[in-house]
Design brief:
Elements lengths: L3 E2 L2 H23 L4 E7 L3 H16 L3 E7 L5 H13 L5 E4 L9 H7 L11 H8 L8 H12 L8 E5 L6 H8 L9 E5 L6 H5 L4 E4 L17 E4 L3 E5 L5 E4 L4 H4 L5 E2 L7 H19 L4
Parallel strand pairs: 1-11, 2-3, 2-4, 5-6, 5-7, 7-8, 8-11
Antiparallel strand pairs: 9-10
Helix pairs in contact: 1-10, 2-10, 6-7, 6-10
The structure holds NADP nicotinamide-adenine-dinucleotide phosphate.
The site of NADP nicotinamide-adenine-dinucleotide phosphate has 26 residues, from helix 10.
């Protein structure tokens, strides 16, 4: 039987509706309007489209939002000064610097300059550390989106064997850290695979929940998946162009074959992708509440 589709578009929409109610209450009862600035350096087409989508969603939700476009040859010092200004701006609760930055800019220095209380991407080491010790203010957006998809699709996480393919700082490591926490909807046994894993299929075949963030089309094929597993495909690979010039996207999982074996699976597009932006909005609302001393 074909796997149930875990539709990120629908789950993201449900969370946005919840956020709209929360934002209306914040405005009416506490005179707080969540504020988000997205800083874009240069004109990389993928970055432009990500930032446009983030701005569009923040406006739909009624945020105070600023799109700050900077020249690709901006210096480290000017960018750091800009971040310092937003760190002090009481109307701005979330600061997002769109990655990747041009090569001449020290990305680490820039991310570390963001006030951790406004770090809605949760990439600052303070927020990474807080997640690891189980006291997060913010969860990083893509892993949080994956977690919500698992919870809201009714997946049994506690006690499950979870295998994560990929160990990046933005997906693999944090989703492993979240699911291993001593918490309801977590408490999983987590294995993390990477390019030096000796026998990846040995691990993936044991997974009740398989999360794939490798950045390689068909990194996971049907023979690597246990019958009845829940499969979360994080990958976004541009594998071609339509005659109209639109990118054709594929995940990291051989969807056609794996959906015949899994009990549930996320599609690409329409799976994890829509969740990431929604979790950014959720973090900005949380940042506004933190600034107002409400949490
Ligand atoms: P990344 O930084 O390139 O990391 C990829 C990880 O996968 C690395 O740890 C790498 O191992 C591992 N890996 C690569 N090929 C492998 C293979 N054949 N077998 C086992 N492990 C393998 O990528 P990322 O930033 O985590 O992103 C992963 C994918 O998710 C990309 O397609 C990206 O576009 C997508 N993504 C989607 C969203 C979303 O919102 N939907 C958000 C973020 C990322 P090593 O460490 O050994 O090199």
């Amino acid at each position: 039987m074909a796997a149930k589709l875990i539709k990120g578009t629908e789950v993201a929409q449900a969370i946005r509706e919840e956020l709209k109610k929360e934002i209306a209450e914040l405005k009416a009862k506490h005179q707080v309007t969540p504020g988000l600035v997205t800083i874009l350096v240069g004109e990389d087409p993928a970055s432009v489209s990500y930032v446009t989508a983030k701005q569009r969603t923040s406006k739909e939700l009624g945020f105070y939002s600023i799109q700050d476009n900077q020249s690709p040859d901006i210096s480290d010092d000017t960018l750091l000064a800009l971040i310092a200004t937003y760190n002090k701006d009481p109307k701005i609760h979330g600061i997002l610097v769109q990655l990747p930055l041009p090569k001449h800019i020290d990305e680490t220095k820039v991310l570390y300059a963001i006030d951790p209380k406004k770090d809605v991407d949760a990439f600052h080491p303070v927020n990474v550390g807080k997640l690891l010790i189980g006291e997060p203010d913010f969860l990083p957006c893509t892993p949080h989106g994956i977690w919500q998809l698992l919870i809201r699709s009714g997946t049994q996480i506690e006690g499950a064997e979870v295998v994560v393919v990929g160990r990046s700082n933005i997906v693999g490591k944090p989703i492993a850290a979240i699911l291993m926490q001593k918490l309801p909807h977590a408490n999983a046994t987590v294995t993390v695979c990477h390019t030096k894993t000796r026998d990846m299929a040995f691990h993936t075949k044991r997974a009740d929940i398989l999360i794939v963030a490798a950045g390689r089309p068909k990194a996971v094929t049907a023979d690597m998946v246990k019958e009845g597993a829940v499969v979360i495909d994080v990958g976004v690979n541009r594998i071609g162009m339509t005659p109209e010039g639109k990118a054709i996207l594929a995940g990291d999982v051989d969807f056609e074959a794996v959906q015949k074996k899994a009990s549930a699976i996320t599609p690409v597009p329409g799976g994890v992708g829509p969740m990431t932006i929604t979790m950014l909005m959720l973090n900005t609302v949380k940042a506004a509440k933190l600034a107002a001393g409400m949490v």
